[in-house]
Design brief:
Blueprint: E1 2-5, H1 7-18, H2 25-42, E2 49-54, H3 58-72, E3 76-81, H4 89-97, E4 101-102, H5 108-113, E5 117-121, H6 135-144, E6 149-152, E7 174-178, E8 181-182, H7 190-194, E9 196-200, E10 213-215, H8 218-224, E11 239-243, H9 250-261, E12 267-270, H10 274-283, E13 288-289, E14 296-299, H11 307-317, E15 323-326, E16 341-344, H12 347-354, H13 358-363, H14 365-376, E17 379-382, E18 387-390, E19 396-399, H15 411-424, H16 429-448, H17 455-469
Parallel strand pairs: 1-8, 2-3, 2-5, 3-4, 5-6, 6-7, 7-9, 11-12, 11-14, 12-13, 14-15, 15-16, 16-17
Antiparallel strand pairs: 1-10, 17-18, 18-19
The structure holds ligand NPW and potassium ion.
């Protein structure tokens, strides 16, 4: 499990650990891990040109001490000190002793133009979003010359607790973070700004407590994927009912059912008008068409605006059974949901639900997913490159496995079927949403292999992804 914490929790853990250790120990642990990660990034230190950009806090200190270590290994390391009066003195002394030097402002452009790597030590967890002068002018030069950036702890300028980027910020290829993941490294747009994230263990673990945000990894997903036992039969494995598609949108029915049959349930029921029913029957002979008992429902994709289907959605939502509500179904939510409900909007749908602009949701994904979960008393899975799943009790999971080719028409219909199948097999909405999102993206990896895919390819790849995660044969 990848776990992320608020800045306050990380600060508290840092205080508790620091009380046990000689002063400066944590900064040296951080700098050592950072220097090793930079050396790996560069593919060796000797002769590499490194520019450290050091702000006024300990983040700058980490960067300067790491610069000193790289200089001792043969790199040519210079530093841009953003404020001479407030810079970490020990860090500057260590760098100059190791053979590095501090640049004068008229040397910045030439040094950055010739750099193999820029180390972003402008601000860390003490930073407010945005960059102040002269950091913004230095970033102009870095971007103009397209120099790769390794961010120290966080990419400077992001909102560390939310991943929001309301103002100018660094875009890193690699972020080397200390002690624990910060929420802003896992949630977009901050996650994208961070690039790859490498965690350096500095010993905070025992002091951190419960995480604020979690991201499942392959072994966590494998533990949660339902598997039948020898005693299982089709009903005990779970039955999922799918209410999707219409005369106009027949594909939504086929794709949502395709996701559902690829999941762990023993049986799928489809309930819909004649035309999509014909398509579903032709494609999935194992699917039972018509009403009957189920353990969970998937409702919503491609329903159109038939009032009878809207009533059906309301009736299902009032049944108390676990329900996944997607797309058109989201227009028929009650004032507050009762029972286990998983809503799966994309950003535009969530914006409509909450009465805000789509851009606002893009900018504040975690905030609006949490707000909707609290508002409707339901778990909200906000689709996107880093999927956010927020439960009404405040727990949050994000999915960081992301394949851009998965963003294709009908992909969400497949996801709804997969997650609904997991709900019917007994997972609660937070588990079904987070496991389903991981499974869906893993299917995307297998189907795409670096090229374009259709939603149908995705559904067909789900069983192989399931098998792979369970450790079965390829
Ligand atoms: N936690 C741990 O266990 C460990 C933490 N360690 C390291 O310590 C780092 C935290 O250090 P920190 O507390 O000194 O704060 P930091 O982020 O360097 O910057 C604060 C300074 O920046 C300024 N400033 C603020 N916003 C700004 C902006 N937008 N643009 C420009 N400037 C801005 C602000 O100035 P002020 O607003 O006060 O004028 C303040 O002086 C942490 O990220 C990690 O790298 C490791 O060494 C070891 C273990
Ligand atoms: K930084």
């Amino acid at each position: 499990m990848r776990t992320a914490y608020t800045v306050d929790r990380i600060r508290a853990a840092e205080q508790a650990l620091m009380a046990q250790l000689p002063p400066g120990t944590l900064m040296q642990r951080a700098a050592a891990g950072l220097a090793t990660a930079c050396a790996d990034f560069l593919g060796g230190c000797y002769g590499a040109e490194v520019v450290v950009v050091a702000g006024t806090g300990d983040n700058g200190g980490d960067a300067l001490y790491a610069g000193a270590r790289l200089a001792r290994r043969g790199a040519r390391v210079s530093a841009i000190v953003l404020d001479q009066a407030k810079v970490h003195r020990g860090g500057v002394a260590a760098l100059t002793t190791a053979g590095g030097w501090v640049l004068a402002p008229d040397e910045y452009a030439t040094a950055i133009a010739g750099a193999d790597l820029v180390l972003d030590g402008i601000v860390g967890i003490g930073g407010k979003p945005g960059l102040r002068p002269p950091a913004d002018r230095v970033l102009d030069l870095v971007e103009e010359h397209a120099v790769p950036v390794v961010a120290v702890d966080v990419p400077s300028g992001i909102d560390v607790d939310t991943g929001e980027t309301p103002a100018r910020h660094v875009r890193a290829e690699l972020t080397v973070t200390f002690g624990a993941h910060k929420i802003g490294l896992l949630v977009d747009p901050g996650a994208t700004a961070a690039g790859l994230v490498h965690l350096v263990d500095i010993g905070l673990g025992p002091y951190l407590g419960e995480p604020d945000v979690e991201a499942l990894q392959a072994d966590d997903v494998a533990e949660r994927l339902p598997e039948p036992s020898r005693a299982s039969h089709k009903y005990s494995r779970g039955v999922v009912g799918v209410v999707a598609g219409s005369e106009q949108y027949t594909g939504a029915a086929v794709l949502a059912v395709g996701g559902a049959v690829a999941g762990p349930v023993g049986m799928v029921r489809y309930v819909g008008p004649p035309e999509p029913t014909r398509y579903v029957r032709a494609r999935w002979p194992d699917v039972v068409c018509g009403e009957g008992r189920v353990q969970a429902w998937v409702v919503g994709s491609g329903l159109g605006d038939d009032p009878a289907r809207a009533d059906e959605v309301r009736r299902i939502l009032a049944s108390g059974l676990p329900v996944l509500v997607d797309a058109d179904g989201l227009r028929h939510l009650p004032e507050r949901c009762e029972g286990p409900v998983l809503l799966t909007p994309h950003e535009g749908e969530l914006a409509r639900l909450l009465g805000v602009e789509r851009e606002a949701v893009t900018a504040r994904r975690l905030h609006y997913a949490r707000a909707a979960a609290a508002r409707w008393n339901a778990t909200v899975l906000l689709k996107g490159a880093t999927t956010v799943v927020a439960a009404p009790d405040g727990r949050v999971r994000v999915n960081t496995v992301s394949v851009p080719w998965v963003a294709t028409a009908g992909s969400g219909d497949v996801l709804s079927g997969v997650c609904g199948s997991l709900l019917a097999a007994g997972l609660d909405p937070l588990e079904a949403g987070s496991v389903g999102a991981y499974l869906h993206q893993t299917a995307g990896v297998l189907a795409s292999r670096g090229g374009p895919i259709t939603a149908d390819d995705l559904a067909r790849a789900v069983p192989a992804a399931y098998r792979m995660l369970l450790g079965g044969d390829e």
